[in-house]
TrEMBL record, chains A, B:
Keyword Lipid metabolism assigned: yes
Key words of the record: Apoptosis, Cell membrane, Cell projection, Cytoplasm, Fatty acid metabolism, Hydrolase, Lipid metabolism, Membrane, Transit peptide
Location of the Thioesterase domain: 52-133
Subcellular location: Cell projection, Ruffle membrane; Cytoplasm; Membrane
Organism: Rhodoferax fermentans
Single GO MF annotation: thiolester hydrolase activity
InterPro entries, per the entry: HotDog_dom_sf (IPR029069), THEM4/THEM5_acyl-CoA_thioest (IPR052365), Thioestr_dom (IPR006683)
This protein's GO CC annotations: cytoplasm; membrane
Protein's UniProt name: Acyl-coenzyme A thioesterase THEM4
Length: 155, 155
């Protein structure tokens, strides 16, 4: 099964969080799991807040790209279109909110689970929760906006 | 002039965003500028959203650590204490919100300017704005909470 991000057009695959072409980046991969979406990510040892715990900025980044990926997949699903059909749906982040519920351990694979709260016009609102060992440690919301057609076209 | 982060205790200097001891991290440096705080940061070429623009997750990370650093400095200032006096004030992020106002170019030094909105008990609320070439491209709010005394003590 291909991840959402593997359907992104080549010129939009440079994102530090989710671009398959960014060799320095996180290259997250997101999939459907019923009506939810799932990303699994193992932090690097240096992604620390304080030793033993994951940096909150990384969690914000994961929630961000999980959110825009989920938004695209949700739009394809709503329109009954395959993710490799054109024109491609791609989203930018209008706003990002994260509540840090408790410290997130760093030595485990984190699971980010997304839920679509709203689809309205070119806007999709995604709620995403970060789990470590099955415990919710952060909860975020991404307001994703469909990208203008010419965004990133120069690449 | 030393940056706020240079006063962090050694065991709390491992943060990926702002820890002087994290050689893989962003190592941001924040200073007072009157009643505002300022961080300047030049993204790496691979910190891309789409080519030519800065990744929003990086901006969230910069706002996050700028916010916790500003919170600590504000608390020292309110109590009339030098930043190298003990016990050290250090903050964790309770919540983070970012509104992305427009695409942020990647090939410039970004300026993050912070303003203290509220100090109440162990909580400090910081508003932070990201400027590129003098234009505000993102605006965030960090609710910073004073760290429990034993946080990170194991390091």
């Amino acid at each position: 099964m291909k991840a959402f991000q593997e359907y992104y057009p080549d010129n939009l695959s440079h994102c530090y969080g989710c671009g398959a072409n960014n060799e320095h980046g996180h290259r997250i991969k997101t999939y459907w799991d019923g009506d939810e979406t799932v990303t699994r990510f193992t932090p690097e040892p240096y992604h620390t807040a304080v030793p033993g715990y994951t940096y909150g900025g990384l969690l914000a980044s994961l929630i961000d790209c999980h959110g825009t990926g989920t938004a695209a997949a949700a739009m394809y699903r709503q329109e009954g279109r395959a993710m490799d059909s054109l024109p491609a749906f791609r989203f930018v982040t209008g706003s990002l909110h994260v509540d840090y519920l408790k410290p997130t351990p760093i030595d485990v694979t984190l699971e980010i689970r997304g839920r679509i709260k709203e689809i309205k016009g070119r806007k999709v609102v995604v709620e995403a929760t970060v789990y470590a060992n099955g415990v919710a440690t952060a909860r975020g919301e991404v307001v994703a906006i469909q990208m203008p057609d010419n965004f990133g076209a120069a690449a």
